[in-house]
Amino acid sequence: MRHYNSSVSAVRIVLLGPPGAGKGSLALLCEQRLGLAHLSTGEIFRQEIARRSVLGRRVQRYVAAGRLVPDALVVQVMASRLGAMKVRRGFVLDGFPRTQGQAAGLDQVLDRKRKPIDGAVYVTSPEALLVRRLCGRRVCSRCGANYHLRTMRPKHAGVCDHCGGSLMTRKDDQPATIRKRLALDHRTAKPLLTYYKNTGRLSTVDGRGHIETVFQRTLTLFRHRGWIDGRHDRTQVHARN
Ligand SMILES: [Zn+2]
């Protein structure tokens, strides 16, 4: 049933979850079907650096030195982008905030504009599934094209569709390395989850199964929370035409 709520103006959501949980694909579906703007930190950093903006040059200095970009600067870059964007229906953030400090910084900026983050959605998955998803990644040894044994198979096993090069597994995508990465991610994510939980804004979505199934679960949650209404549904219809 459609649920119209005139008080819903724009919804601001943070997607959280370990690598391999499918946050990127989920954010993309939120953009395509619900008209929510999708902001990914990695992409925004690359754009700012390419534009050689003042903030971009500051970020570049850390990246070039192989150092972590400080929380305050990450928040500044993201906030300036959010401020400049025409966000009519709202946005989903993916890959940001990554630490509790960033989450608190983001809240400070948005509180000033009285446009708080409505909720953080944690996409959960058992470790075994994450490992399976992450170790299915393959990359072309010649042109660098990405593949996945389950979701983006090459036409011929082990061979790149674009250049005929042989496909390989990155060292980062081998099970032992993946388990280490997941453990590290778990430790950094904990205070972040606690932060949103303590402010009453944490929800979870079961990330098992096909991405479409996960999206439908997410949609149910969004409706239940009153985060989307009839206008978002209409966007969905347009997007499908
Ligand atoms: Zn190739």
Listed once per kind, the bound small molecules are: zinc ion
Mean pLDDT: 87
Strand order of the largest sheet: 2-3-1-4-8
Rg from Cα? 19 Å
Please report the first level of CATH classification, the CATH class of the domain at 11-126 and 200-240.
Alpha Beta
CATH homologous superfamily title of the domain at 11-126 and 200-240: P-loop containing nucleotide triphosphate hydrolases
Bin the strand percentage.
Answer: 5-15%
Order of helices and strands: EHEHHHEHEHEEEHEHH
Count of helical regions: 9
Helix content: 40-55%
* Uncertain stretches of 5 or more adjacent residues: 1-7, 235-241
Helical/strand content category: alpha/beta
- Please tally the β strands and state the result: 8
What is the assembly state of the chains in this entry? single chain
How far apart lie the N and C ends? 21 Å
Any idea what the CATH architecture of the domain at 11-126 and 200-240 is? 3-Layer(aba) Sandwich
Shape: globular
Largest sheet: 5 strands, parallel
CATH topology of the domain at 11-126 and 200-240: Rossmann fold
